[in-house]
Each structure stands twice: as C-alpha cells, then as structure tokens.
Design brief:
Elements (H helix, E strand, L loop, with lengths): L2 H19 L8 H5 L3 H10 L6 H6 L1 E7 L2 E6 L14 H17 L6 E12 L10 E10 L3 E10 L4 E13 L1
Antiparallel strand pairs: 1-2, 2-4, 3-6, 4-5, 5-6
Length: 175
C-alpha cells in the first residue's frame, strides 16, 4: 500500500470519526461566542458542544482540527459544486480557504473578541472535479495584532497536490 493511499485512508477515517460526534448544524448565540476563546469555540465543534455552521452543511466540509493559529478543514468536491463548464466552481475553493484562514485567526482570539474578513485573495493552481477526492484547506496565521490579523492558506489533496492558495486580512473587534 502506498503512502498516498494510507494518507487518504487516514483522512477519510478522521472525517468519519468527526462527523459521528458533531451536533446538528446551527449558529451559536452571541453570549456563547463571547464566553469562549476562539480555539475552545472551534474545538467545541468536534466535541458536539458548538454547532457546526450551516455553510459547512451546504458545502459538505468539516473542521478537522483547530490549534492556536492553525486550522484544517476537509471536503470532497462533487458534481453539486460544478459550474456550467463541468468543473468545481472557484467559489468552493474560496469558501474552504476563507473558512480555514478566518478560523485560523479566530483560533488566536481571547473570549469576547470576534473577527470579520476585510480582504481575501485567492490564487487558483488547478481545477477540481468529482474525481479529485478529499481536499484539505489549511489556514495559518502570519500575524495577529489587537485590531488586524493576516493569515495564509492552501488547498491540497492527499497526494500533496496544491489546488489553490490564499491570503486574508481580518478585522478584530469586541463582540
């Protein structure tokens, strides 16, 4: 068995285990959001304490991990994500990347702080189809200050191919 096959099996097993634990999709209250630091809030998704957001249901992706300044999402592009030319719409990659880089910023925030995306720049490297298989969007904070944070991210498959990369600037504020 090749290393790529083993990694793919690991990715699929992680996703299955996480999906078995998450609560129904929903939106957290402002009070709940205010009461937790970003890392704990995000990790609550995978323990069933925090509802996963409706966008994750719509797009079919799941939070894999959230550490301080680093977040990973996984999704499998399919025909439901196609544009009229029969390839996965660029908005699928942009949404995965916006989630990964934004949540990477969120993972660094103390309780009572929130963020919003000010700018997202996506570069597409190659197209995706329903043959691509699972992809991961990895977000990592470059710098985070009191009011502004910058992060970068990329989408890769289990073979290490890169499909897109992005940078973001986020505004940090009191909730």
């Amino acid at each position: 068995m090749s290393m790529e096959t083993t990694l793919l099996q690991t990715w699929l097993a992680e996703e299955t285990a996480i999906r078995a634990k998450v609560s129904p999709f929903g939106v957290s209250s402002r009070e709940y959001l205010r009461s937790r630091n970003g890392k704990d809030f995000l990790n609550g998704v995978n323990t069933g304490e925090t509802p996963p957001p409706p966008i994750a249901e719509l797009m079919g992706f799941v939070l894999i991990s959230a550490e301080n300044g680093t977040v990973v999402f996984q999704g499998t592009p399919g025909p439901q994500h196609y544009n009229p030319s029969g390839m996965v719409h660029g908005g699928y990659a942009a949404t995965l990347l916006d989630s990964a880089v934004g949540c990477a910023v969120h993972s660094t925030l103390p309780a009572g702080k929130g963020f919003t995306t000010l700018e997202l720049k996506v570069n597409y490297i190659r197209g995706m189809s329903d043959k691509t298989g699972p992809v991961r969007a990895e977000g990592k904070v470059i710098t985070a200050g009191g009011q502004v944070a910058v992060a970068e991210g990329r989408i890769i498959d289990s073979n290490g191919k890169i499909y897109a990369h992005a940078t973001t600037t986020c505004l940090i504020f009191e909730i």
